[in-house]
Predict the 3D structure of the following.
Amino acid sequence: MGKDTKQKLGFCEGNKCACLMFLVVVGAIAAVVCVTLLVEDIRDIYDHGENNSSLKWWQKTIIYQIYPRSFQDSDGDGIGDLKGIISRLDYFEYIHVDTIWLSPFFESPMKDFGYDVSNYTAIAKVFGTMEDFDELMKQAKKRGIRVIIDFVPNHSSTEHDWFNRSRHAKDDKDPFWDFYVWNDGITLANGTRVPPNNWQSVFGGPAWELDSVRDMFYYHAYLTSQADLNYRNPKVLEKIGEVIRFWMTKGVDGLRIDAIPHLFEAKDTSLNLPEPEPGEGPDLYLYTQNQPEIFDVVKQWRKIIDEFGSDRFLLAEAFGISREDRRKYYEAGSVPFYFQLIKAKARCCATAACLQGIIQEGLDISGSWPNFVIGNHDNLRIADSMGQKYADAMNLMLLTLPGTPTSYYGEELGMKGGDYKGLPPKDPKAITSGNLNNSRDSERNPMQWNSSTNAGFTSGSPWLPITKNTDYKNVNVESMKTDNTSSLNLYRRLAEIRQLPAFRTTNIVFPDKVGKVLVYERYDDQTSYLIVINVDSSPQRLDLRAGDITTGVRIFSTKSVIEERIELGNVFLQPGEGVIIRMDD
Ligand code: NOJ
Ligand code: MG
């Protein structure tokens, strides 16, 4: 490769190969992000002094997901709360994270730990008060921390006043008559009432429940206590719009829309799920997921949040969607979470080829802004799904990929999930489905702050215990702060490296031949960085020379804090080791 060219040419793996041509430049057109920032009054309030660049704040940030129940308890009831989060805000400055996303903290009977909302504009007592929330916003803004909140529009709790009114409505003159998805069902010859069809709930069992008050069935994608709102009713949209305005007025910077693929069900309730084709699994949500009407509603929500400034962020929890639907979420003004890396181990053993394929699929969005996620409250922690050995390397990958990364709390410590085998599950998904393997308790284990009893999470008895397997005496913020080589300090350095201009672009290239090591290059006009991650279980030696570029500086390694000049022809990586090499030019 010519010295002063920035051609992305081949890297060699092992000593077998000759240098290979790099072909693909994914999302290289930075123009896409050269969106002119609109000048609005509101920006004065929410501007964090970043408008010297063409990127929006959410294109430059790391999103850190907090599961409020498990982050920090302030009052000793064993359940995390808003005051607890306020007391930890300095931590985000420390780890260079400037956006937090809070899972639901709204009034709720907590059947699905807050994803069953009984009042969208009130705070659950267990999490605190509206004053606490206002204080959280104030303190966050003071520190330049953006706040995204969860928004759960698909369903409300059956304890919501709307549901109560709807089940008591006598006829369609009542404004709440059609607020939920009601159906008479079918009356069999013997007089038995059965649901109108065989649609299934995500948490197991039929998706229809006979309500004894109204004597009709209502549809629920999740628990029987989570009734789906009827988005074919404009009054529902109106009420939900008010909810959005309420939180926008409070100054939240964005919404993460929960369970959006379930927003609509097929109109024709006589449709039954077909028998699966031989050799194929059933398509359980054929009529209840990814219906075409979703996108118009997302557009309407985008319009509402735009009343408060065009830089408010809309993130869609869109799982199991096609490439085409992904495009439609973007087009509607939202960013659909890209979840496939979470499943890498199960999908294809998380080999280098597997990871590269998943990443390329995530980038196949025709110039839209990418995003990646490696953990959340619904999936095993990385240290458990991939193995502890690979936890730091996966943070390295997440934070060096193009687009916006989302980190789940505790992942910066490489923290393991709780070991709750043998204990009765708390997660309704495990309880209703009768399958303990479905339990999400493990990844919801309390944050480990220090080595004291209960890891500094609570002075009381934690709602989920801190278990031995997590090695919390060592794996905790306080202890890890003092160790340069800890996962926490590696994460902090990565968060800093992310701020380098090359990582702010969407430029990335992969070798055209993948071996056992995941390799990609990130670059801008000035500098190229090689990201090299050994996801294999044995050590690997690589030849990464690209044309006549034969040397570089290893600016980061998950195994060493020493910056080192290296020969690209002889790069050695331990299993689970990941490095960043600044290439000489
Ligand atoms: C998706 C959320 O992530 C999950 O935790 C919840 O149980 C369901 N939506 C239902 O709201
Ligand atoms: Mg508490």
Summary: Residues 73-75, 77, 79, 81 surround magnesium ion (ligand 2) (CB under 6 Å).
